[in-house]
Amino acid sequence: MQTDHSDTVLVLSEIWSYNVILYQNLIPGYVFYYDLPNESNVRGIGVYVKDTLTHCIEDNYKISSVDDCRIENLWIEVTNGQNRYIVGEIYHHPGYKINTFTEKLNKVLTQIFNHKLPCFIAGDINIDLKRFQTHQDTKTYLDNLILNNFMHVVLMPPRISEKSATLIDHIYYSDDSKSTNDVVKSVILLMV
After folding, report:
1. Rounded CA gap, 141 and 189, in Å?
2. Does an H or E element contain 72, and which?
3. What's the CATH class of domain 9-174?
4. H helix intervals, 2-124
């Protein structure tokens, strides 16, 4: 997430525990945070925060991983001058119940909405938003985000193959303040 050229937060999905030492030393001038699954060496998330920014981990937003909903997530409050905002990074494991994840996430979204802080959420959510018209759990998930004033900013499927295109990597933004002039953009880089 980048709100201007001086205050930057970078988010990563599927960092794998084997790579944590590499990531910790990869980008000078940033503090690296991560959350890894307990039951596996694969998956996991990481967040880089520019070391000149005031920031702290917000454990009160942390979503617990349970048997029917495996998830890694980090929530960081970032302050730059007068601007405060929350950055959330989430990895929702594929194949686990969407409705359980939606219920857990909705509690966090409601908390954030009530605190009236701008918020960015990014992650490999593994819920294909292209299915919202035909899959009730996907529709409910998306409805909860909208009800909590979160706007989806990835408009094109970031995962495209010869046989399919999925919209499972999500970025959301919410800002309830009336004074914001921020423009949120998403970019998909195609690697060939």
Report:
1. 26
2. strand 71-80
3. alpha beta
4. 20-24, 98-115
DSSP state of 139: H
Are 75 and 85 contacting, i.e. CB atoms less than 8 angstroms apart? no
> What is the rounded distance in angstroms from the CA atom of residue 38 to the CA atom of residue 16?
11
pTM over 0.90: no
Integer-rounded Cα radius of gyration of the chain: 16
Residue 149 phi, psi (nearest 5): 70, 30
- What digits encode the pLDDT tens for the residues 2-52? 444 455 899 999 999 999 999 999 999 999 999 999 888 989 999 999 999
Tokens describing residue 17: 């525990």
Instruction: Please count the CA atoms within 13 angstroms of the CA of 2 that sit on its side-chain side.
Output: 7
Half-sphere exposure of 94 (CA within 13 A, CB side): 9
- CB 153, CB 188: distance < 8 Å: no
Q: Is 77 exposed, middle or buried (0-12, 13-18, 19+ CB in 10 A)?
A: middle
Q: Which token pair is 132?
A: 């919202």
Tokens in use for 4? 């201007």
Structure-token pair, residue 97: 């119940």
